[in-house]
Hints:
This protein has 169 residues and is mainly beta. It has two domains: 6-101, Signal recognition particle alu RNA binding heterodimer, srp9/1; 115-167, Signal recognition particle alu RNA binding heterodimer, srp9/1 (2-Layer Sandwich). Helix content is 14%, strand content 41%. It contains two helices and ten strands. A four-stranded mixed β-sheet has the order 3-6-5-4, covered by helices on one side. It has a four-stranded mixed β-sheet with strand order 7-10-9-8, with helices on one face. The protein has a two-stranded antiparallel sheet with strand order 1-2. The protein is globular and about 55 Å long.
Amino acid sequence: MASISRREVLTVGAAGALSLAVTDVSQSEETRPMANPREPRVSPFLAFFGDAEKAMNRYVGLIENSQIVSVERYGPGEVGKEGTVKIAAFTLNGQRVMCNDIPGEHNWTFTPAVSLYVENSDEEALAKYFEVLSKKGKVLMPLNEYPFSKKFAWVEDEFGVSWQLNITE
């Protein structure tokens, strides 16, 4: 596991809005450094309802060159269920992704309108991604040839996260 170079704290404000405070605590981050600390870093953020750790471990175990960078858990008396993920960062082949187990009840979840797009030139690897991600999930477009791609699939995994899988040449 990489050394943690940022302290990341998720807070819930008076209106129930989630905010993320990030402060530098060291200089040894293994993920891609920000070109200019004054410029924003954009990362996908996945809000789960109790499955953040399971999903994060599945994704890191599936995609090559991936790792969990940091995990902070809810403690006793905090707004989230004790022991669940308050905030976590992981990389998928170098792409930083954030996630948490969002506290409380919500009338929303993931939507296929926003998906993680994975390209790979290895058809065997793409087939493995499809198999693992579609298991207990939903196939939106089967792994097949399409007019726009030699091999493509669109799946929703068991956690509700949508993935587009595309072969590159």
